[in-house]
Amino acid sequence: MQQIQVTAEKILNGDRRSLSRAITLVESSRADHQEQAAQLIAELSKSKRTALRIGLSGTPGVGKSTFIEAFGMQLVALGLRVAVLAVDPSSARSGGSILGDKTRMDYLSREANAFIRPSPSQTHLGGVARRTREAVTLCEAAQFDVVLIETVGVGQSETIVAEMSDLFVLLLAPAGGDELQGVKRGIMEMADIILVNKADGDLKPAATRTCADYAGALRLLRKRPQDPDGFPMAMTVSAVTQNGLEDAWQKMQDLSNWRKETGKFDEIRQSQARFWFQEDLKQGLLSVLRQPEIVKLTQKMADDVAKGDLAPAAAAQRVIQTIQGQ
Predict the structure, then answer these.
(1) Tell me: the pLDDT tens digits for 223-272?
(2) Which of 26, 89, 174, 258 is the Cys-Cys partner for 134 at CB 3.0 to 4.6 Å?
(3) Where are the domains of the chain?
(4) Cβ partners under 8 Å of residue 315, min gap 6
């Protein structure tokens, strides 16, 4: 416990090495590490420090890393401390990840007031790593003002990042679809601000048309109680020329300030806390399936199902009854 308190104190003082080690600790699947991580999070939560959490999603190739570097450099120039939590897809075969986001963000990674941490998605779905939420808490405790959460970029179903961010920004490429694409449910309903990237050079006219298409589509969506007039909105930006980045940051601040003034900001965080309680409860229940005796029973039931001796539903019911009996 003393070591946990020492680590917590170092993180509260902004020690980057301790922060990196703490994120590694919360990402570990070892039971003893998970227990230590829970103690560390509880200790750091006493500080009540918060940052503006911005989730960033978009399809692969839309320029998320390029945008984050340009946007992060702008925030650093304004005197803000920026943390970037980037999630890379893991191989379904080997389980490995490239984790190349830090290499892509060459300039931002050199900044003293910026912290970039790539993490593997492992088997977790939804575009983020399983412990990204805890990593956000650690970055807040380490005195960062803005936490940018870059997701894998898996498409329409990548919505879970909205449950851990104050603002959800969706990055789109020019000519990525028409109004019909825009009114598709899922990720579009979660977005607070849509940014059409690469609005420069020959792609600028296409970006302008795409922005207009999505702006029209947003007007067809049902009004959300957490949005003021004019939100959600679509804008064009260029990470290369940096056009529109200042306006985008201003709109993010406007939306965040309005939500704080109206109490919606706290309501959203409270709703997210309930969501993650349910998620942690589900994960805890699923961990029962990894007990040796349950694994053995599950394998036997799977063999019976494969042979046709049992229906899948009946086999699953027997496993559930065994767990309940314990």
Answers:
(1) 899 999 999 999 999 999 999 999 999 999 999 999 999 999 999 999 99
(2) 26
(3) 1-47, 49-261, 291-325
(4) 301, 302, 304, 305
Out of 3.40.50.2300, 1.10.1610.10, 3.40.50.300, 1.20.5.170, the CATH code matching 1-47 is 1.20.5.170
Omega before 312 within 30 of 0, i.e. cis: no
How many other β-carbons are positioned within 10 Å of the β-carbon of residue 223? 8
- Please give the single-letter amino acid code of residue 26: V
Encoded tokens for 273: 């806390």
Please name the residue that has the structure tokens 């849509």.
194
Written as six digits, the tokens of 210 are: 């795409």
Per residue in 119-165, pLDDT tens? 765 544 444 556 788 899 999 999 999 999 988 765 544 567 888 89
Tell me which DSSP letter residue 80 carries: -
Residue 250's closest CA among 66, 49, 50, 71?
Answer: 71
Say if CB 172 and CB 58 are below 8 A apart.
Answer: yes
Q: What is the pLDDT of residue 27?
A: 85
**What homologous superfamily is domain 49-261 in, according to CATH?**
P-loop containing nucleotide triphosphate hydrolases (3.40.50.300)
Question: Whole-model pTM?
Answer: 0.85
| Beta strand pairing call for 82-88 and 114-120 | parallel
